[in-house]
Amino acid sequence: MKQTALFFKNNPDWLAQFDSTSLLSKMLDLCDCAGIYIVDKDQQLIYWSLGAEKLSGLKCANVIDKACLQEYAITEAGENKEQLIKLTRVDGYKIEVKKVVQILHDKAGFFAGGIGLLFSCSEQASSTLLPKVPVEAKQSFQGILSRSPAMQAVFQIIQNAAETEVTVLVRGESGSGKELVAKAIHELSARHDAPFLAINCAALSSSLLDSELFGHVRGAFTGAVKDHRGLFQRAHGGTLFLDEVAELPLELQAKLLRVIQERNFIPVGGDRSIDVDVRIVAATHRSLREEVKNGHFREDLMYRLRVVPIFIPPLRERREDISLLIWHFIQQHNAANFRKLEKIDPQAMRALLDYAWPGNIRELHNVVEYAFAVGRGTTLRWSELPPEFRESRTVESQTVQNLPLSAEEEAASIRQALERSHGKVTQAALTLGMSRATFWRKRKIYGV
């Protein structure tokens, strides 16, 4: 994958001189010795290589434009998963074959079929051609799944920051994966063998948070019947993740600043300081600069925390990750053997791709869990999505039914649809109930 990405990045002018159809044709001709085939979204075979003919005994003329056998099916759930399948050749011989597939998405992000690769198990040399790492793993960075270019930049900052001891501030909306970023920094750092501890600063009262962070001595307050080691002490040598650090009370901000500057603290009710070696990774969904401006956060602490700021883009700004994450969570739940999903109905997928995801990845995971709980069968259907998806579609359908609109209103609706779809014409057209051609024509008329 790295070599492919590098090739496309470094050679745009060279590639521009070729017609994509002829280039693909030349590449497939070179691969005729391998068992390669292509299916469309309806599982119709549209390409069957000479190698596939030799392996199965099935002639290209007899299988093209026909539904493929179940053994060759490529579903959205099976990307690059190595499978061992048993085939009965035309001549009656039974053979074992290794199958690896890559699923394909169209420009709108919808499932469009896939490419399959077949290897005879008897051909030992061919096994070296099989990808050893699933595609999902190649799109994973320390457990964070993404194919978004914006996230690749985030991964590089994480990698670089982990090699140092600086304090990191992670900024992102709720549910965007801030704790995963903190864990990645810890795992990639020299502290990875020491503890990683986390606390949500908005979840506890000021007194409880003080005790939980810095510990207390016996008799410090009613109920303190023994000494309590706080998170800073327990995380010694490792990393402490302070989630929602903007919610930290002002009196505790002073104590946190002392720990960062002096590397020691005094427990609640104590009379001696304790030395500590802890790396801090903080996170917030708020702007600390705004909090400082409003008098809710110490400016000196802000500068100590945001030595390296990392901004996680929300899921709505990396739409290419939605399908990847949906299938990741589906595969997790498929493993529980309660229900196995093999495909997503196009109407459901369109709703999932169009949704704004205010709760980000956490919300997406909850939606998949909801579908598994309320639905049955191997297909995730639109009716199995939470109520907010159906309400959204109802509002959109009412908008469509209210047409015809005035020229100004229609131009505005087209502009809004493009904004919601982040410039993706197919999605915008579907939202307004138009064909792609009609959408383009109206854009030209209104100059949108």
From the helix content, strand content and strand pairing, which structural class follows? alpha/beta
Specify the oligomeric state.
single chain
What is the class of the largest domain in the CATH system? Answer: Alpha Beta
Q: State the end-to-end CA separation.
A: 37 Å
Biggest β-sheet strands, sense, barrel: 5 strands, antiparallel
Binned strand content: 15-25%
Order of strands across the widest beta sheet?
Answer: 2-1-5-4-3
Q: What's the CATH topology label of the largest domain?
A: Rossmann fold
Count structural domains.
3
Q: How would you portray this structure in words?
A:
With 448 residues, this protein is an alpha/beta fold. It has 3 domains: 2-138, PAS domain (Beta-Lactamase, 2-Layer Sandwich), CATH 3.30.450.20; 150-309, Rossmann fold (3-Layer(aba) Sandwich), CATH 3.40.50; 317-446, Helicase, Ruva Protein, domain 3. It is built from 20 helices and 16 strands. The strands form 5 sheets. The protein has a 5-stranded antiparallel β-sheet with strand order 2-1-5-4-3. Strand 3 and strand 4 (94-105) form a beta hairpin. Helix 7 (149-162) crosses helix 8, helix 14 (320-334) packs across helix 16 and helix 19 packs across helix 20. The longest helix has 15 residues, at 320-334. The radius of gyration is 28 Å and the shape is elongated. The two termini are 37 Å apart.
Short descriptors:
448 residues; alpha/beta; Rossmann fold; Helicase, Ruva Protein, domain 3; five-stranded parallel sheet; 20 helices; 17% strand
